[in-house]
Predict the structure.
Amino acid sequence: MSNGQGLGFEALILLSLYLLSHILIGYFAFRSGGTWVAKDYFLGGKTTGAVVLFFAMLATKFSGNTFFGLPGRSYRIGLLAVSLIPFTLAISLAFLTYAPRLYVLSKKYDYLTPADYYADRFQSHTLRLCVSVFFILTVIPYLLIQTAAMGHAFVGFSGGQYSFSTGVVYIGTVMLAYVLLSGWRGVVWAEVLQGSLLLGAIVAAAVFVVSHQGGLAAVVDRALAVAPDKVAVPSSLTELTRSYFLAILAFGLGGAMYPQIVQSVYAARSERALRRGLVLMLPNYFLILLCVVLIGMVGIVQLDPLGTIEADQVLAQLMGQHAGHAYWLTIFVFLGAAAAVMSTAAGVLLSLSSMLTHDIYRHYLRPQASENEIAAVGRVCTVLILVSVTALSLQPLTTLWQLTIIKFEFLMQLYLPLILGLYWPRFSSRAALAGLLAGILTVAGLMLGGVSHIWVCDPGLCGFAVNAAVAVGLTLLRPAETAEQRRTQARFFALFSTNPDKA
Amino acid sequence: MREPLQAWIWIIVGVLLFFSVPYFFAGTYEPLVFGLPLWFLVCLAASGLLVAFTGYVILRHWRLADAVLKDEDDA
């Protein structure tokens, strides 16, 4: 069903020119040198400063989900989507629990991928393999979300003139050229542009659609008439606890384990740059997510009823309706959505290919591979991943929000061995592996068994509890060998022994 | 040397997160304040305070690398 006329062919031309600029940025990054070496290709030589890191974090964190999945969520649940703000803040909070120590260790021991820390701390090839494969599998849905978001963009913004598949194939092709040429350095350069654009676009869209309705109070007033359940709070305290309070915890723990977020710790030039980049992000979380809530609410009162998956197009359809009299604003928002998709997908792709090459290829297939070979294999992996994901996302099976939740419920299992490894010297290698496997199997078992929750706990939290019980219990019952404990203490904890507080 | 993993910080975070969920308004949208549900404004305010507090923690309670890596260089 189309809710409006939408953008035409000239919008596609503008989009192509805009995306071509990204490819050119990538090309100049390549020409600037250094993108063939693995550390440069994947982490920009570990020299990223605060402002650029901020835009990289902004552009990576606010993905196609910001323009499609989250407004769709807001459309489906109404004003309660204000909880998206603490949901997203929880990711920064969970990040704060591990980033300080992980940054120090990554500088000292030159980590490249998230699995490097696990392998070093626990001295386990099995755990490295397990963690790498697991990161790769859980992040692929995130890439799926981006290509699917572009599919929704093409349908919604064009008023149905272009198909979902057209959007998916189009963005897949552009992304391939962009990431192959650039590596981290080029992607990060482009993210300064993308971050600014997506921030401007989402704010402009929200301000426009709300003011067109006469302000937020007017929107709420109309919503009370057509869908009062989307303005009221659910009556069940159990539901509020499960779907909001505890879900915030799960979201935070899972979201903080995105490999590209972990790698942002490694890529920072200094601790100060990392801190400042993070602080700059915080008010933007508030602003962008408030805009998302407003957009969803306007969709409730302005659009014909949308189906569950179709709701992910709410912003695109709202803007598509205004394309006739607010053409350039609609184009701007469209480009902002494309910027969000490109930036996140590129960051995820780089992260994925770094894990495939460094954690799998180098450690298990070609230990003697040179840096140039690793970067070249990284490019091949990028192609294979993107082609596979593009093919998979041609048929949307579920909402973007549901894909987000599924991946978080698995990703959060990786948080426990990380945090226990950083703060508990006695935490053993066998306990880390056993806990992780127990947690993953619990989540998978509950999901495949169709169990949506046990009391107030969703599968992710159930798995996390099992993970914790096994990991902690095994460590207490069978402590690590003396040699392992001695090594762990010397390499990972002697560094942080108490020093006089320096102001 | 300062790290954010201190009990009092996470107690405050927990309290703010609790107030960002509208437990005290379950089953209703009233009262309205300037046309907006009060529960929405309370959740928004709790989220705003959480943003500010998180920023404070990052700026004032995260000082690790300089102390640790400098000591390593001096050793």
About this structure: Chain B touches chain A through 46 residues (CB under 8 Å).
